[in-house]
Design a protein that fits this description.
The chain is mainly alpha-helical. The protein is built from 17 helices and no strands. It folds into two domains: 130 residues, Serine Threonine Protein Phosphatase 5, Tetratricopeptide repeat, CATH 1.25.40; 126 residues, no CATH class. It is globular, with a radius of gyration of 19 Å. This is DUF4034 domain-containing protein.
Length: 317
C-alpha cells in the first residue's frame, strides 16, 4: 500500500525527496515507470539484461513488486508468454508485497512463488519473496527453511542475509546489550565465509543496528541512537573498523544494486560511534540515496534523521 499523500501546507520539496528503494538504479527506475503504464516489455528487457546476477535480480524484482498494478501487468505478461519465468517471478514478488499488507493474500502469494520456482529452479528470487513474507508472517522454522532454500542457490545472497539478521535480532530482547547474542555470531560467520568482495562484510554492522532497533523498542536503549553507547563497545568498534577498512579496499568496485543499503548502515554506525569524518566520506559516496533502515530506528523520520546526520558529519569533517 503506498504511503498517504502529504498533508496540505507541507512543502512539495519533501515529496520529491522521498526515499526511493531503487537506490539510483537508472535502468530499474525507467522500467518501473514503464510498468506503471502497463509496458511490461521494459521489465522483460531489464530482467533479461540482469541475467543471473541474483542479488541484482532480487533487488530489482522486489522494487518492481511495489509498483502499483505490478501483479496485474505481470498477469498480462504471463498470458502473452505463459512459459516466462520472469513474468512468474514478478507476479510472485508482487503478490507477496500485497500479502505483506493484507494476510488474506498469503495463500495466493505462496502459490505464485512456487509456480515461479518451478519455472526456474536455479533462481533464488521466488524463495527470497517467500522469505520476505515469512520474516513478517511466518514461524522461525519457516524462516530458516526458506533462508536455506535461497542460500543453496546463491550462497552470499545479500537481501536474504539482511532478512535473517533482522529476524534473529528480535530474539530475546530481555537479554539487553549482550555481546554474545546469536545475531552477532550469525553475522560474523556469514561475513567470514563470504567472498572477499562481498558486501556481507558489512553484515556485522547491520546486526548492531538491528539489535539496537529491538532494544530501543523494548526501552533498554535511548530513542536517539547517537546518544546510545551501543556502537562504542570494544566489539562494536572492531566490527566498524573492519567494515570501514573493507569499504576503503573495495569501494571502486561497488557501484550498483543494494550496496548503498550497506553504506547507509555503515554511515549511520560511524555517526553514532562519534566518527564524523569517516561518516562524511560515506555520505559523499551515498549521495541522496538514503534508505529507510537504519535511519528510521527506532521510531524516527528516516528522511530527517539521514539529513540531520549528514549535515552534522559534513559540517564537522
Amino acid at each position: 500500500m503506498p504511503p498517504p499523500p502529504p498533508p496540505f501546507g507541507r512543502a512539495r520539496k519533501r515529496a520529491t525527496n522521498a526515499l526511493d528503494p531503487a537506490l539510483g538504479d537508472a535502468d530499474l527506475i525507467a522500467a518501473r515507470a514503464a510498468l506503471t503504464q502497463g509496458r511490461w516489455t521494459a521489465v522483460r528487457e531489464l530482467l533479461a539484461h540482469t541475467g543471473t546476477d541474483w542479488d541484482l535480480r532480487g533487488h530489482r524484482l522486489t522494487v518492481l513488486a511495489g509498483t502499483q498494478g505490478a501483479a496485474a501487468w505481470g498477469e498480462e505478461w504471463r498470458i502473452a508468454e505463459p512459459d516466462s519465468a520472469d513474468a512468474a517471478a514478478l507476479i510472485g514478488c508482487a503478490t507477496v508485497a500485497r500479502a505483506l499488507g493484507d494476510r488474506r493474500y498469503c495463500p495466493e502469494a505462496t502459490d505464485a512463488c512456487h509456480r515461479a520456482a518451478a519455472l526456474a529452479p536455479e533462481d533464488p528470487t521466488p524463495w527470497l519473496a517467500l522469505l520476505l513474507l515469512a520474516r513478517r508472517r511466518g514461524t522461525e522454522d519457516e524462516v530458516v527453511r526458506l533462508f536455506d532454500a535461497v542460500r543453496v542457490r546463491h550462497q552470499d545472497h545479500h537481501m536474504a542475509h539482511h532478512l535473517m539478521v533482522a529476524r534473529l535480532a528480535e530474539r530475546h530482547p530481555e537479554l539487553g546489550r549482550d555481546p554474545l547474542h546469536e545475531v552477532y555470531d550469525f553475522a560474523a560467520w556469514s561475513a567470514e565465509h563470504a567472498s572477499p568482495e562481498s558486501p556481507l562484510a558489512v553484515l556485522p554492522v547491520v546486526a548492531h543496528a538491528e539489535r539496537y532497533r529491538v532494544l530501543a523498542a523494548a526501552g533498554s536503549e535511548p530513542p536517539d541512537p547517537a546518544a546510545s553507547g551501543h556502537w562504542r563497545s570494544r566489539r562494536a568498534r572492531q566490527v566498524l573498523r573492519t567494515a570501514f577498512d573493507w569499504w576503503l579496499e573495495w569501494e571502486e568496485r561497488l557501484d550498483r544494486g543494494r550496496i548503498r543499503t550497506d553504506l547507509n548502515y555503515l554511515a549511520h554506525a560511524k555517526f553514532c560511534e562519534g566518527r564524523p569524518a569517516e561518516a562524511a566520506a560515506l555520505f559523499h559516496r551515498i549521495g541522496p540515496h538514503a534508505t529507510r533502515a537504519p535511519w528510521a530506528y527506532p521510531d524516527r523520520d528516516p528522511y530527517d534523521a539521514f539529513h540531520a546526520a549528514r549535515s552534522a558529519a559534513l559540517g564537522a569533517a
